[in-house]
């Protein structure tokens, strides 16, 4: 998905991926990572997810990257925050209350800006990208996260021929192929969520699982 696709989505407010509360599977599994308060967590392709506010409320420092200025403005407005803004080679940084959100391209981030990320939280990010971009995303962006970084990755699995992405179906075998070279992967939970997703049913999808992985950078 090219930037124009996402800018149009935000302009039209076609943001069905956005949730009005933090991701329940984040709340359920985050503590199992053992990330101490004060550490930094990377939230790629962040949108205006309330997961960032929840992570900050746990005492973590959040670093998000998002293409859309609209998304970023809406996120800080939803929190009643007026961020301080500065520019760097990565984009426009917005900083308030332990949350730093860069308006820029995730693929332009480097090891320097990601150096102190002890954790990563990936929901609706990997699965927002078509197959060739998923390879770039993992082999370039995730590869710039430091050793010992830990994270949660949440995917969807459904018969891809029944619906066009995004979100795309990313099966466990692909997760293992994408991450296996540099990350240890543990499947924490697999849940059938078809009944809770009427929009998928309306599009003719006949099976839908969400899967939570723990990732450990070697
Ligand atoms: C499906 S949304 C998910 C947002 C968020 N993770 C959530 O759970 O609500 C994907 C987001 O990634 C952003 N995005 C797509 N490509 C990007 C890129 N190369 N760099 C930064 N953000 C990007 C889009 O603008 C969009 O807001």
TrEMBL record:
Record keywords, A-Z: Cytoplasm, Methyltransferase, S-adenosyl-L-methionine, Transferase
Localization in the cell: Cytoplasm
PROSITE patterns: SAM_MT_TPMT
Gene Ontology molecular function, alphabetical: thiopurine S-methyltransferase activity
Short name of any one Pfam family annotated for the protein: TPMT
Main location, first listed in the record: cytoplasm
Transmembrane residue ranges: none
Keyword Amino-acid biosynthesis recorded: no
GO terms for biological process, alphabetical: methylation
Binding residue positions for S-adenosyl-L-methionine: 10, 45, 66, 123
EC number: 2.1.1.67
Reaction catalyzed: S-adenosyl-L-methionine + a thiopurine = S-adenosyl-L-homocysteine + a thiopurine S-methylether
InterPro entries: SAM-dependent_MTases_sf, Thiopur_S-MeTfrase_Se/Te_detox, Thiopurine_S-MeTrfase, TPMT
UniProt-listed NCBIfam families: PRK13255.1, TMPT_Se_Te
Family as reported in the entry's similarity comment: Belongs to the class I-like SAM-binding methyltransferase superfamily. TPMT family.
Protein name according to UniProt: Thiopurine S-methyltransferase
């Amino acid at each position: 998905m090219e930037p124009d696709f996402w800018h149009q989505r935000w302009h039209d407010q076609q943001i069905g991926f956005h949730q009005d509360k933090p991701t329940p599977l984040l709340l359920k599994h985050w503590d199992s990572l053992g990330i101490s308060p004060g550490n930094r967590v990377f939230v790629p392709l962040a949108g205006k997810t309330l997961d960032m506010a929840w992570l900050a409320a746990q005492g973590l420092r959040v670093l998000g990257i998002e293409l859309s200025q609209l998304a970023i403005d809406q996120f800080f407005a939803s929190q009643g925050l007026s961020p301080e803004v500065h520019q760097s080679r990565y984009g426009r940084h917005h900083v308030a209350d332990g949350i730093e959100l860069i308006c820029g391209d995730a693929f332009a981030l480097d090891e320097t800006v990601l150096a102190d990320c002890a954790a990563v939280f990936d929901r609706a990010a990997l699965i927002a990208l078509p197959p060739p971009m998923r390879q770039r995303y993992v082999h370039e962006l995730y590869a710039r996260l430091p050793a010992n970084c830990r994270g949660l990755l949440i995917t969807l699995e459904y018969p891809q021929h029944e619906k066009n992405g995004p979100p795309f179906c990313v099966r466990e075998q692909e997760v293992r192929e994408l991450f296996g070279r540099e990350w240890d992967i543990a499947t924490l939970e697999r849940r059938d969520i078809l009944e809770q997703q009427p929009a998928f049913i309306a599009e003719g999808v006949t099976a839908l699982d969400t899967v939570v992985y723990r990732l450990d950078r070697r």
